[in-house]
């Protein structure tokens, strides 16, 4: 630890044996404090991204910076290791530069607040929170340029600085940063909301120290971490083999015509430790799809997936970190070298989840989930009203199909991101110059399976004022794969229909497409993959899906189900069709990718209306070499 | 002479409270509840109490009733099959919902999506479109609507909802569609979103309106039958139901808007606690209502309960004003267990319910519950006063022993652990409504009721520092008090939705005056003369861009001069209190609201006979309880025999027919003149 903590009370904490009841009570109280962080944020934030969609992540850590409650693991390790200054009571740290904290946050839009919590002159905890800002400056509205070649094009970079020094606000620096964003009021208010939520959690921790005594609180939190480690150790020992398993998946393209980029991981157990090795992952990209994957965050992703797949009762914290070792090659897509562009890393995060799911389930297909909505396609819209000249800017995250699961069908049009919600269309229409003409899930887009993958969503945006849109999307080239006999879901697609009727398929990652009043954007997100043999699905369930408009009569045939004119199952025709399909398809594989990369390339233009991406190894690497030097 | 009658339907008994309006004289009675048709007990009880008071039922001018018919319809999924008509392109508005998946990161792996209240097969979409500004973008296609509705006939729907996009701005299409639907379904109740909830957000509006339709046939049926029976018995007075927000609504209105009744039952308890404690001078209250599977908590400040804009009932979360009651899954029946991997002690949310119930009930329950822990600790004596049931203490002890063995602690320690963790969960809910809203629980008294509330009251008071802890007399009577003492209420709001610089003091004052006239007129129509009305105003303010507003009281007097300046300053102060900061951004006036209240009843509470401070005449027997890591000798008292001014020193157990109060060591319980038990730490005496 480089950061120097200034404590006026040098008394070391005393280790106290905690009875299990007090421990559970403190755990509950911490969970309540975390819930208060969320509530405070949503009530006071202003940007639709945070207040409506919930794109923000709270965390409470122990005095050493290990996450005790939260969701993405501790943001603190990289900060404490690299921050050269002092930490004193009343300080509030603010930062946004991923390179300053080893990727604890992964692009400049995420503003992170770190608040040290002191009690009686001793550091007892940290509370942190980061939220996605609608705009942090840079070359495009929204600050997520698909074609950026360095982080300098992606907005203002805030290194770890003291926004408050011993309780005193540094107004000049705040002003400097706000002056660099296009959405000053939202940023100001969202930042306040984030700080307020950290302060509230800080108060709760101080109250707990008073209620239980500081030594008991500190020992209890240690024990919570230890308890989690014990549980995970057992889980790892029983569920992870010493044999190596590998899996690879792809990010379809980089926004500059190259792709797909490979994410490859190999997992095995050595003693009580799990190794996650990302050898074989593509080299970093020249554009902004790089995902600076923080090692601790990866451990947390792994841990949470492990817990959810095998035993959802366990509450997760950082306690098990020693049990996981991560190896990420330098200069790869997951550990790009400064100053590589990072803004569009969302696809990388999503794909890491798909890869982890596949690794964990490969040896135990009954626990394996299909691929799903492992990204969050973004739509950005900005412009000025013709009459008033007033500027408007929207950042919206889309959702799609949850994959087919051992547990059952994947819900249609839902979010895989924790606590995220969609933006009400009436809200969008009231505050932005657009009309949402259709908002529905796309029949047949979920992969067929014994458990059907969830359908993707179609949103039709009619633009009412001139403006520009930007899109970040993926899974338009590779399929959301099915498992255990389940088929892939449909891929994403974006069609812009001009007011004069001219249609154009839009690339998945684009900036600055001018739109005019009357233009219509049809944005289809992708479906989840199917789970298990679709020919074994109860025909009555298929008929219900047809009746509900979630599967078409034609789509039902992919389940080998023939629907009669009155909507009922034609049992005889169904039996015949199923017999025929069983013979035709041959053996069922563990994964169904919908074809090899070469096959997908071959069919790309015909099937998607877009040219296939070019092999990334062919691109000009001058920029990278410059960067490395 | 004029009377008002409050009736509360509980699981076991239906409680009645009759009040003579002028003198405030009261009569109480109870009859066994009739769960197959609750109205039977209501009518029987009404006749019985009228006979007891020697009055004719026609002398009852105000009949007030809290009902759980709507709540139970939702909780048991026995509502109507609802048809839904949406705007073209929005058939799946309920299916997609807000895309929210609970459970945090990877929660989707194990989430079970609940079924829709209006299934997709009985949802149709029709061409029509209103813009965000209220303009007609696409006219309603009446022919298509007729075809779609005819198609719904074969689905056998029992209620219909119409919810169009932006109908909160302009209801013309919904109104017309409603007329056409009435042509096709002359006998079905039809709910329009623009009537039930004229607010932005298509999902929440559609869901709330569908929920209204879902409970409507059952509520309407209940209300119609009850009215007919009461009429037959000779009662012709004004008949009202208690709404979720503890206001009253007429039987007629309840048939159209039953979604406002989802919290009617719990609201009665809160209203009753508020009234009873108010009589003894306690205006700041935290209420805790502990039932079998869950605990409801609410906050009352200066005699006014806090209101919430949402009502949660089971899986359903609708936009309907209700008392800000938070529910957590910890109650007497909550099951304790120790997960294999973590070896942590967990309590709930799974519950043993009424069947099989806690182990000590001997109804087949085998898993240790909070009630069993209470038995092991001696907090619940085996013999309940007036109860027909004997609790099986050895069986409860054996079930808790399993937990104790897994954790390697004694059976008492395990029982105390279960008890403490249940308390902690309840306290989490109490924190949400107090600390999280910026209130210090130490400024509040804690009032506990419900079957198990008084078992946990003293312990919760210790955790929160809320003194005194108040245990009012039996829970059923408390709810009947809430029903009977509720005042008639009329409320009107107007959306403003403009930043402060765009409105003037004068224009807001004009709106307030307009609202004043409207609520006053409404109450007059319900028979409350203007002189007896009490009118208040509220404004919802936020910083432009925020999603939630803060409600603040405003006065009409003087508003035209400097109302906005004062309101702005009050808002900044409140925002700072709630959220630790305020902003220099523009403030936005979101809504203004006027509320008119009818006259409060002049109810006179009976006082207990004065005692000499010594409770020994009420002693039942000696007993022992476990607390603070050891066993203590304790005494069991009969609450019915305690007199005003009696002081009981803890540890002790105070029993009455339908509840038991635990008094912990180092605490003292004082009986106040109205029969409340007031618990305080001994040291503070």
What this model shows, in words?
- The complex is a heterodimer of chains A (629) and B (685).
- With 629 residues, chain A is of the alpha+beta class.
- Among the domains of chain A are: 4-223, no CATH class; 369-533, no CATH class.
- Chain A has helices at residues 20-44, 48-51, 76-82, 171-178, 184-212, 214-239, 295-310, 346-361, 425-431, 539-547, 553-556, 571-585, 597-608, 622-628; strands at residues 4-5, 56-62, 67-70, 86-87, 92-95, 110-119, 122-132, 161-165, 168-169, 245-251, 261-270, 273-277, 324-327, 378-384, 391-397, 434-441, 457-463, 467-472, 482-483, 493-497, 503-505, 509-515, 520-524, 591-592.
- In chain A, strands 3-2-7-6-5-8-9 form a seven-stranded antiparallel sheet. Chain A has a five-stranded antiparallel sheet with strand order 16-17-23-20-21, covered by helices on one side.
- In chain A, α1 (20-44) packs antiparallel against α5 and α6 (214-239) packs across α7 (295-310).
- The two termini of chain A are 28 Å apart.
- The relative contact order of chain A is 0.11.
- Among the domains of chain B are: 81-188, no CATH class; 334-421, no CATH class; 489-597, Dna Ligase, domain 1 (2-Layer Sandwich); 615-684, no CATH class.
- Chain B is 32% helix and 27% strand.
- Chain B is of the alpha+beta class and 685 residues long.
- In chain B, the strands form nine sheets. In chain B, strands 13, 14, 15, 20, 23, 24, 31, 34 and 35 form a nine-stranded mixed sheet that branches.
- The model of chain B has no long low-confidence stretch (mean pLDDT 90).
- Classes of the chains: A alpha+beta (629), B alpha+beta (685).
- At the A-B interface, α1, α5, α6, α7 and α9 of A face α3, α7, α12 and α16 of B.
